[in-house]
Amino acid sequence: MAEIWKGRNKRLFEEIRFDAYSCSYKVRWWLRAAGKLSKGTPRIHSTDGAILRKLGVNARVPAAPRIRPCKWIPPDFGFIKLNCDGAAKGNPGPAGVGVVYRDDHSNVIGALSMGMGATTSFCAECEAIMQGLNGH
């Protein structure tokens, strides 16, 4: 982007003709340099990957996540099941918790969610358990 911006400014302010070939050469050079500095091959979106491949930059599209079946099992007769989770975006970062209570017929009998501000993932997980056990 900087090379395109510089070329634009030279054309506008210095009345120097924009050299697209030189600009694309410099952009490719910077992309390759950035690719060499990164650990391994960068994982990118498929559209970006197509563009980078045309520019001669090695990149790979991330593999689709493997879908695995899972099953929720209701609690024993007369019991309530508590499912809870806490998460933070970043570590630390903005965090929140969520809790769902279900009876032995799988009916939702209560739920809660709350933001926590900035904290770690571990603290968010612990807070989710505490909130769930306290029934708040």
Written account of the structure:
- With 136 residues, the chain is an alpha+beta fold.
- 39% of the residues lie in helices and 22% in strands.
- The two termini are 51 Å apart.
- The protein has two domains: 2-54, no CATH class; 81-134, Nucleotidyltransferase, domain 5, CATH 3.30.420.
- A hairpin with a 5-residue loop joins β2 and β3.
- The chain is built from four helices and three strands, in the order αααβββα.
Please trace the helix and strand order, writing H or E for each element: HHHEEEH
How many separate structural domains?
2
Report the sheet with the most strands, covering strand number, pairing sense and barrel closure.
3 strands, antiparallel
CATH H-level superfamily title of the largest domain? Ribonuclease H-like superfamily/Ribonuclease H
Q: Order of strands across the widest beta sheet?
A: 1-2-3
Radius of gyration: 26 Å
Strand content: 15-25%
What is the approximate shape? elongated
Structural class: alpha+beta
